[in-house]
Each structure stands twice: as structure tokens, then as C-alpha cells.
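Review form for a predicted model. The reviewer records the input and the model, then writes brief findings.
Reviewer: anonymous (R2)
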Amino acid sequence: MTRPRSVPGTPPPGKKGKVRSASSALWDASPLTYLALIITIVLSVFPIVWSFIVASRDNSAVTDIPPPLTPGPNFFDNAQRVLDNTDANFVYGLINSAIVSSCVTLSVVFFSTLAGFAFAKLKFRGKNALLLIIILTMMIPTQVNIIPLYLLMVKFDWTNTLQAVIVPFLVKGFGVFMIRQYAESAISDELIEAARVDGASTWRTYWSVVLPALRPAAAVLGLLTFMETWNDFLWPYVVLNGDTPTVQVSLNILATGYYKTDYVQVFTGTALAIVPLLLVFIAFGRQIIGGIMEGSVKA
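Model under review:
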């Protein structure tokens, strides 16, 4: 009786289980990995938690050593003091930041998906040169553009208005480049050709075929853009004043607008400013993560 020949490159029958267990063990997290993750989570979450803790106490909690780790009873009183502060206009700042962040996010997502689809799947003259120009704009720091951009806002008479913090950021090179890279792998040429065979125009192809496929990347881009715009301080500080603030300008007034800084008001305002970001992430976080997983499976 002849012995069966083994296929080259395959392990002997007795070693299959060992090879499979070794390959699965390669992906098992070690105790050191769990320790590193726990330390990372604690370092990331502690400043946010501590802001809420100090916001619920008095000013002595800022200098206490060790710092307090349990909330106090004064959060709602401190929050009312911040909201009633007429110098900071905190409620007005929250509303303005919501308007600015929403407008910029919707515009960036729309134009980025439209341009990313064009750069990834359409053929037109000068495509590579235009993409290179967009990439070069990402290399210019915002601080370099502040003076000419401010002079432009003065010429348009847009200072101390929300247009000044919305219009210059309606399109971002990072968003175009990110969506273009995602569309290259997530959307097949056969899908575009099938839409054209069915008689769909370029706009209809974008709206009905491309945009649903780009949903995972668009969701991530939207979340990043909303957070970046909400947390932006430098440009609103330059072009706006206390009468038309965003939430970051209001926080700056709370921190520097008085002879003696009321740290409880600053921490309370910071905690209140974090709440909308947490709500946005809770509302769309599962959809974003699910969309990423779905897109990775399709790709």
C-alpha cells in the first residue's frame, strides 16, 4: 500500500492543529496589550472627567492635591452662572458654534464627495495637476493665511459676522484627498459603467450610486470636520468679538476677561462645550463604526 503524497507547501496532517493554534495565538492580546490600552483610556478620559468634577465644585478643587475624583453638588449652580454671564454670551456662543459647525460640515462632506468621485473615477484634462494643487494647499499652515484672509474679510465687511468663519472653510483639501483615496478602492469601474449603461447621468450616478458607497468615509469626514470646526479658536478669535462669539471665544472671555480668573466658570464652560460633541459622537458613532466595517468588508 502506497503512502499518500502530501501537497507541497502544506503542513503534515499531525501538525495542522498546531499551526492553526499558533496562527490564532498570534492575534490574541497579551496582558501587556491590555495594560497599554487601559493606560491609554485613562489618560484620554481623565481630563474630560476631571473637567466635569471641578465644574461641580468650588475653586478650591482646582488646587487640591490629590485632585478630587468624585463630583460635588454645585454643577447646576455653576452652569447657571456661566449661562447668565452677559460678558461671555455663552448661550449665543453655543448657538453660533452649532450653526458654523453644521454649515461647514455639510459643505465639506458634499464638495469632498463630489470632487473625490470626480478625481477617482472620471477622466478629464488636467486631473493630476489639479489634484497636486489640492494636496499642496494642505501643506500651507492656517497661520500663514490669517493676515491676507483677515484683510479680505475687512474688504467684504464680514468682520464680526458668521460668514467670516463659514465661507473660507466650505471646502477642504484634506476632505477631497481622503474621499478620493477611499473612492479608488471602494467603487469599482464596473459599477460606474453599469450606471451609464442604464442611462444615468453623471450627477445621477453620483447621487444614487457613488454617494451611498461613500457613506462610511463621508461619515468619518463629517465627524472630524464638525469636531475641528467646533474646537477652532484662532480664526474666530481674530475675526469675531464678544458680541458675535463662538463657544471657544466665549471660553476665552471666561478665562481672560476678568482680573481674577474664576476657574470653576472656565471648567464649567468647558464641560458644557464638550456635551454637544459627546452627543454627536453618541448619535453617529455606531453608524460611523458600522459603516467603516461594512466598507472594509466590501473592499
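Findings: The chain has a mean pLDDT of 84.
Further findings: Residues 5 and 279 are 62 Å apart (CA to CA).
Recommendation: see findings above.
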